[in-house]
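Archive maintenance. Older records in this collection stored only the sequence; we are now back-filling the structure field for every entry so that each record is complete. The fields below show one back-filled record exactly as it appears after the update. Entries are processed alphabetically, and Pyridoxamine 5'-phosphate oxidase putative domain-containing protein is next in the queue.

ARCHIVE ENTRY
Title: Pyridoxamine 5'-phosphate oxidase putative domain-containing protein
Organism field: Paenibacillus wynnii
Length field: 150
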Amino acid sequence: MSESVALLNESLLTMLQSETFVLLNTVDAETGGPTSTAISWIYAVSPSIIRLAVDHRSRLVNNMKVNQLVTITVFGEGTVHAINGHAMVKQDPLLDVPFKMCCFDVEIEAVRNALFYGAQLDSAPRYAKVYDQRAADKLDGQVFAAMKKA
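Back-filled structure field:
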């Protein structure tokens, strides 16, 4: 396990200012157990704040409102980064999007390399949107614009 820092480095900051996907780990509000969900509406506001948007139909909204502790798992730079922090509601509902969403800011407390010793990622995982690409691009544009204004 590597030593942690409390800020995103320049490379992670840049990576999280363009479309990427991460795993958002929360504490389930009903069971108290860990949960992990892939999300892509995430944006690094600064080296110490990550903003994310979540559809209100997701259990993640209540999870983060009940227990602010989160870990964001990022695959990149040849490794896996675990970003620990506290999620606080930034805007609810998120304005100027076509359905009810909640916007959270995550105040970063620690960033650490979470890949096991002696390993390096050959490539970061990739994903493909399997629905109407124009609709996906339009919605992503709306959500990211609203997140940046929040």
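Update note: The mean pLDDT is 94. Residues 10-149 form a domain with the Pnp Oxidase; Chain A fold (CATH 2.30.110.10).
Entry marked complete.
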